[in-house]
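Components:
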Amino acid sequence: MRYSQKCMTTEEIKKTSTKTGAQEGFVYLPLIAGWLVPGGGHFLLRKWGRGALLAASILGMFVLGLAMQGKVYASAHEILDILGMAGDLGNGLLYVISRMLGLGDVQVQVTTADYGTRFIVVAGLLNIIAAVDAHNLRTGRKS
Amino acid sequence: MGNLVFQPSHFTAVVLFALFASTVFGITMREKPRDMIRYGIYCFVLFVAAAIALSWVMYLIAR
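Structure:
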């Protein structure tokens, strides 16, 4: 018998998941959807309110980051650039779209541009947290 | 980003950052809606209070 979070056995988790219908289909779909589209994982699980708030927060942070003339990392040669790019990739499709449209590719030397770059990186990191939360909801670890 | 240019002050940027991050933390770290709101507010206050406290520390060091 394996034990997981909050002293629940795997059997208890399975029972809880089955009750909510969370065991049907591809388990990682909310995780992937949540990564690609902010709040998408929660929308898939019909958690409309949570999904909308997450989407508004992450999208808001990303858009404000771009509006502050923040940089979207395109290549990584140094360790800090690699970390920044890893954060940016957390934005999923937002990252792809911004790269396709050429947004955030101009380096601007103003203070707010540096804030903007951080906003974009943190939006990606928050999106990963949200996607993992959707996965936890899907597996029944969280209700 | 096109014509949309936003240049907030330090404090506005901190408040916006705290608002967005606290919302995500509140939703993802707690299970019940009431606990989510409480934890979100708690995180927001800590973010802003820490920023103000550290600002004063840096101001006093710089003098």
